[in-house]
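Supplementary Note 2. Why include the ligand at all?

Several targets in our set were suspected to adopt different conformations when bound, so apo predictions alone were not considered sufficient. For every target with a known small-molecule partner we therefore ran a joint prediction. The input for hydroxy diiron-OXO moiety is given below.
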Amino acid sequence: MQIDKVIENVLNEQIYYEFKSAFAYLSLATALGKTHYAGFENWMRKQYEEELEHAKKLYDYIEERQGSVRLTNIEIPQYDITTPLEAFKIAYELEIENTKHIHGVYALAVKNNDYPTQTFLHWYINEQTEEEKNCQDYIALLTAAKDCEGSLLMLDHEAKKRA
Ligand code: OFO
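The joint prediction is reproduced in token form.
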């Protein structure tokens, strides 16, 4: 069944939010690239790639439901940060914002009895829970390690392994 215009619009908005997240993560990576935390720079770049995938999945879904994809300009934020802890605090806020948008889209899909969109969005809802937790875990670890450069470098080393 062809997608309703109301749902098509909010899914297009969601594409915008996924790209917004993607470029925010890339911007956090470039900021960390100016520090010696190359592992966290890598982590942020990988998250940038994941967010691009999230946008692409939405793109494919809209087309699959015979809707039209509309892309809008993304403003790339610049972050004046020098530590991974600051980066993860920003990332956490971004994830919270994105979760709220996804929940909003889901609520509308429920209101419109759009069952395929509800099923499609389950993946995003779970993904957001996981991403918020990743940020919270890093915030906790980096806060505990913040006065110990050795511990920070060990965490950075782990972050470098993210593939
Ligand atoms: Fe797209 O998952 Fe986070 O924002």
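Residues 95 and 132 are 6 Å apart (CA to CA). The mean pLDDT is 97. Comparable summaries for the other entries are listed in the accompanying table.
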